[in-house]
User: Fold these one by one.
Assistant:
Number 1:
Amino acid sequence: MPQYRKDIILDEWVIIATERAKRPENFREERIKLDSAIYDICPFDAGNESMTPPEILKIDSSGKVSNSPDGPWLVRVVPNKFPALVHNAEPVSYKYGPYTNMDGFGIHEVVIHTPEHITNISSLEASRISIILDVYAKRIRDIKKNARIESVIIMLNQGKEAGASLEHTHSQIFGLPLIPAVLEKEIYGTAKYFKQNRRCAMCEMIEFELSQDRRVVYKNSNFIVIQPYASRNPFETWIVPLWHDPNFENIEETKIADFADCFKRVADFFHTELNEPPFNYYIHTGPLHLEDFNVNYHWNFKFIPKLSIKAGFEIATGIDICITTPEYTADFMKQSKVFN
């Protein structure tokens, strides 16, 4: 029988359509892949650094921050050449008839994951992923110095269907002068849950999931990989820190390796068991300058593979239908060698 399940943070309903549910292995279908041949000119490849704007941050071959414009590198952060947001605008809202507008102020950066022409982030070792995650934290801490930026969203589009415009693996950092609606709903949802239950919603969720062990895919010393109870998408996968902290940028360097361990396993699972589906990932971290506002928030990281299409019911109602159960999906994932 189908079930309505409520997301306790967003206070929204989803439908787990057990009667229509696909077996997880059914998602191993042939997919149209981008041509993985190395292009004659890729602006993200080593040797083509002049094709991007000057770098904001560079990690050299020893894994350290480099101030030299030359020499080998492992990760580069550059301004987006075609930014969705610009730093030379003013974050001031104004009225236009009944509407409210604001110039497109913000920060839009590209994190180039590797100098090699690699098209899938799962091709990188966990040690290289650790460097990328550390770069994310470094950039947020630096962006936080700008009092006009209220929130940072870090995300990746892998595959054309997920929104990627260049195949060379890279992610993006957005600094916004506002709190986007989805993050705002999470923050208000956790605050509401705390007011009613005197506990962090995510901490309570982790405790319950560990006690049930029905949707837990993997756990190490500092992180848990789970299929969310009210999953909106097949194989939607969360990586959540086991300790409470609203802001990802506070992460201790000693814990980044455990984060990368979980990240690598999930990326490898998508690659080996789901035939490289296009996917997005993003980090939700609390607002930069509103510590009292988001004290009950719990930062989190989410992978969303593109395995289904939203249809008329979802669009008309805002209620997602997930066509596989998170319990069955978690069990299927745990059987994979990448989690053992």
Note: Helices lie at 126-143, 181-197, 201-212, 253-273, 312-317, 326-334.
Number 2:
Amino acid sequence: MNNTLYIVVPCYNEEECINVCSAQLIKKLEQLQAKGLCSADSRVLFVNDGSADRTRDMLMQLHEQDERVAFLSLSTNCGHQNALLAGMLYAKDYADCVITIDADLQQDVNAMDIFLEKYAEGIDIVYGVRSSRDTDGFMKKLTAGAFYSLMQFFGADIIRNHADYRLLSKRVLMALDQYTEVNLFLRGLIRTCGFRSCTVEFEVSERFAGESKYSPAKMLKLAVDGITSFSVRPLRIIMMLGFCCVLFCIAWAVYDLVVFLQGKTIPGWTSIMLSLWLIAGMILISLGCVGEYVGRIYMETKRRPRYFVAESQHKPADKK
């Protein structure tokens, strides 16, 4: 097999991981090449997402030591999803396929062998899926479970326990390049491309250095981006809640009329206040939900660039 593979690795303040990550991925490239699963033109492409530490300088040293290590530096911190997209779209001009993986290498790099075997069988998208969450702490398990449950409940088409460890063929990368939206949720966006796909399970290890950059706040933002980008179910839920409120009000009005005709007096302060707070809360939640969609429309209509590449250090083979 003479396919050129680019391993795209987004990194943000990963100075504690970069050297080990680079060494392991270069070793894996050599193993894949020895098995005939990729060509000698393959590269490891790091995307420095505006890191504030020594990540960029360390990447430059690694590039000077080994031309198989390439990197892009974005002009500022654009976020994990934009960094991934920047690396994939850059690699599409040089690679036959791309594998994306995190810099902490918690995902099992040995699963790449199976990824490429599936690619050789004609699969365009190979999704890496965690076999378990035994290595996660209680809060991580809780938030991750809530994330996927929330996404599926609101109708976002994603694969449970699939993060951003995947293989994409060149034609999938060309298809992704045609999307122009600013609010990125790659886990859902790639699903809309179609093409032949499959899943491969892998084991997850402990993070060997540094800390996870996905805080609960970022996880929540990712969930909101995914829901508002691929589903209008929240708006429909609001409409159904509105109908329920109307029915409740009609029933309450009938009850009040019956009580009035019976000549009974009921203190009404509590019921009135509860009703006011309930309705006011629903109105605010509804406005917030609609506002999220309006905000997404606002950002999309401005057509701002998703990122700027400030620097690229790359020694490719013959351009494809």
Note: The mean pLDDT is 80.
Number 3:
Amino acid sequence: MKSYLYIEKRQRIPLKNGKLPRRATRIAEEFESLRQRSAEDINYSIAYISTVTVGFAGKDVNISITDIEGVTHNIFDFTHIIFGGHFNMKEYELKQMIIKECGKRKDGGPLVQNANLMRRLPYYTKLDMTYLLARTGFPYIDTDYFGENTIRETSFKNRFPIVVKHYAGANDLVQEQGKTMIRKNIFFLSSSDDWAQDRLCEHNPADYIVQPAMPIAEDLRVFVSRHKVIGGWRRRSLSGFLTVGGEREYVLENSPSPAVRKLSEDISKAWEADFIAIDFMFDEQGNPYVLEFSMHPGFWAYENKTAPPADDPEQTPVNVARYIIESFSPGG
């Protein structure tokens, strides 16, 4: 019997009527489909990472979690564990602890999706992701971190336009038209005057990384399962430089160029990723550079917002949720 545990983060803006986050809802639908298709007994539970408890007694480490139905489980009773998002570094540290303890089990323990990649990434930040890319030799967008030094006054006076991002990907909660909204801490600067723009000027510059603005206002997300590209989309900005926020269009790109396909699959193999989404941007010659990557990507827009390309009007999105629950290393 296979027993799956899917661990998601709680939403910063509480969902009404006990609803699950979009990603978790789709994962649950595919678990139900798997149960119907499989000749094996399939059980699954969904829980929030915030419900993990850890007990230390001598050399014993006991980890439990309470699912959305209110049932508490021993982590080690599951055969497969899939991580969704996390809200802060404490929750990521708990994920790392689960990986380590599952790996020590004499009975083999639960298989944890992307365990090998997570071991390579002790901190889930844009800074650490860039460090991994640099150390493994894959093309990425030049990135600088200046701490509390004179980043605003002198560091980029001759290097605009630039993009400034929160190093850990933290977002702001803001009030707009009577509603609480999430706004990404990613900013486009065309001159030193733009440091004064709303929200950015309120933050500590030591929390930000800086990248040169790429010449094309679009990015490409590629989904890779067990080292094979399975689908993707190209996202274009229709109202400015940044592809996050504002008016955008999504176009299916399930068959990316040979260069992007090879680079995506090479990254997945080198990092032993079970499932990964890789975001690319391009220079004026069309060369791909890794913008960032995710082990638990959102895919609602891919399934619901993407249009087929003009030269392939019959193209449709692949079932990303199904691939996620099936993407475990050989033997899993």
Note: Residues 166 and 208 are 4 Å apart (CA to CA).
Number 4:
Amino acid sequence: MTKNNLITQIFRPEVRALSAYHVADAKGLIKLDAMENPYNWSEEIKQQWLATLKDCELNRYPDPEARQLNATIKRVNGIADEFDVLLGNGSDEIIQLLLMALPPNASVLSATPSFVMYKQLADCLGLRYHGVPLADDFDLDLPAMLAVITEHQPSVIFLAYPNNPTGNLFSEAAILEIINAAHGLVVIDEAYAPFADASFMNRLGQYENLLVMRTVSKLGLAGLRLGYIAGQPNIIEQLNKIRLPYNINILTQASAEFALNQQAVFDAQTQAICADRAFAFNQLNALDGITAYPSAANFILFKTPKDKATDIFLSLKQQGVLIKNLSPQAGLLSDCLRVTIGKPEENSAFLVALRNSLEL
């Protein structure tokens, strides 16, 4: 038996057809490609954090339900006691759990372009993924979404709010129509909630099929890999049945618990990022040939001159700045690049490099 035959016999066609999720090597570069918070903690706060870790019993399994952290997340996010919260090893694990719980050949719906893991995980599990293209203004194409709901009755609908990679908030009225029309669950993915003055968390009690998902990654804790989802207890109960035990390790539990009690630190960082986002947006739109799109997240999507996106991306990288090239995805993202908002000096270096690239 050849190696290729072995692969064919063992692995499902859906898996063989996938490409692994690629993360660019940012060594030696100004890293503005992954929507991370660029700010670390002060030495004083670091020492306080390390002091909390010294009592972690690494020889013992962590609390399988992360009860103390769960309670802190509910308190910090204003989640009422009547709702339950499930924690995941990043939002990716929560998306995976939701999709693993579905019957074979179930339908999954989202907009496109949006967070790539909705489709990646649905395809991996052999589910029927339906991606409805956004309108030209990056808002939801409501008639098309409603048509797919009627025809395919998706078990889960994912809506990123704000959306990645476009950065905008979808129409609230359109989302409410989708929730009302849905036959299954509607997950509002609020990964970028710290940078957007909008949320569906306070609507959990209004819709039985509504779930709200968040992460601490964009807040400034990407290294912890912690996501969470809130909703009706009977729904969270089903997801807990397939969640692997001890999925949130003891160091993550202790670190997140400490960090979420430092709200003033994160608030200051978020305000700085939002102010720098406004500055970068204006600077980008002042450049000939560049169109920056309004963003409610910690990144900005911008369009370059026709057929120049990849050349500009490579030129920026050669000058030591790494951003995200979205142009190969085509469609609405043709000629588009996405830049994460970094520290002021990083943003300045990016803008200088971009000006140089446009002059080539």
Note: The mean pLDDT is 95.
